[in-house]
Design a protein that fits this description.
- The chain is mostly helical.
- It has a domain of about 220 residues.
- The protein is about 70% helix and about 0% strand.
- It has 14 helices and no strands.
- Helix 2 crosses helix 9.
- The longest helix is centred in the N-terminal third of the chain and has 30 residues.
- The termini are far apart.
Length: about 325
């Protein structure tokens, strides 16, 4: 394989991973606040359809992204309202919304399948795109890719380096303690669930307006579940989650390369490869096998490896916070 071919493949992996990285950031924000948005797959499907149609009718990709963000925020609000106000099970509401989003995307988008529409324009960054190797991989894309880069960095900084991020994590870890310190836990959960849902909506539109141009039934089906899995794999950290998205993108590239090398084999086998690899990684990260592998490393690296590989969900993830029943007013 030539150097130019390798650079092209790596650039493609970065591009293909972009929507997943955006969705993972959105769900990480939501779950750090203590809410589980299980509607990601349906949200991304409906957002991809709405984003494409809105972009087509308005002749503006940015209107398409805005409409998709609105769909994501609406689904997220339903989950937050159902959980916080109506005290319904977050998982059940999210699962029903996933099915609803899937069906609505197929029904409402049936007249817009496989037709040309708007697409995000390429925008290489001057000077940076000319850097050998790194330039074409990271700086010769379009604004959606750069948005993902910035989003991952800002989300990490906000979450772990600001007082606002401390309050966010308090809402998902120890809401009772946050409430005692004057934090309006449920208001924060509303806000961050809506922000996270909007980002998931943008991720859906990123497929139909940038990565997989156009709309067809089931356009992004399954990718929402992958995003949820990556959040767990990433240990509820946006940076680790972004690496998880890149890992999935690399597995897709590997599957495509294997398919070209073994054309006689069924395409189904290679399409399943990324899913199998993701399941294997999740099982490894979430089991005692991680500790067994860590002890094989040099002793001076073991502590750092445990910190990197062990994952622990937010302590109050998926639970209700009712002030009058939690030491509050």
């Amino acid at each position: 394989m030539s150097d130019s071919e390798l650079v092209r493949i790596l650039s493609s992996i970065v591009l293909q991973s972009t929507p997943l990285a955006i969705a993972v950031c959105g769900e990480t924000i939501t779950e750090r606040a203590g809410v589980v948005n299980l509607s990601l797959d349906g949200t991304m499907l409906l957002s991809a359809m709405v984003g494409f149609v809105a972009g087509l009718l308005s002749e503006s990709v940015w209107v398409g992204f805005l409409a998709a963000a609105g769909v994501g925020a609406l689904f997220a609000f339903i989950i937050a309202f159902g959980s916080i106000r109506l005290r319904k099970d977050q998982f059940a509401v999210g699962f029903v919304l996933t099915l609803l989003g899937d069906e609505l995307s197929a029904f409402l988008g049936q007249n817009y399948t496989r037709i040309p529409g708007q697409k995000v324009s390429h925008l290489g960054i001057p000077l940076l795109k000319d850097i050998p190797i790194l330039g074409p991989i990271f700086f010769d894309h379009d604004p959606v890719v750069y948005f993902a880069f910035i989003l991952v960095g800002i989300t990490w900084w906000w979450m772990f380096r600001t007082q606002h991020g401390l309050r966010l994590r308090s809402a998902g870890e120890r809401p009772e303690a946050g409430f005692v310190r004057g934090i309006n836990v449920n208001r924060l959960r509303y806000i961050y669930t809506l922000v996270g849902g909007s980002l998931v909506g943008i991720a859906g539109a990123a497929y139909s307006l940038d990565i997989k141009l156009g709309w067809s039934e089931g356009h992004t089906r399954g990718l929402g579940w992958i995003a949820l899995a990556i959040v767990i794999f990433g240990g509820w950290s946006p940076i680790r989650g972004a690496f998880g998205a890149l890992l999935f993108g690399a597995s897709k590239a590997l599957a495509a390369a294997l398919q070209r090398s073994f054309p006689e084999e069924s395409v189904v086998v290679f399409n399943a490869t990324p899913w199998v690899l993701m399941i294997a990684v999740l099982l490894l990260v979430g089991s005692d096998a991680t500790d067994r592998l860590i002890v094989l490393a040099p002793r001076r690296f073991q502590s750092r490896l445990r910190q990197l590989l062990r994952v622990r969900p937010p302590g109050a993830l998926g639970t209700l916070f009712i002030p009058g029943e939690s030491g509050g007013e």
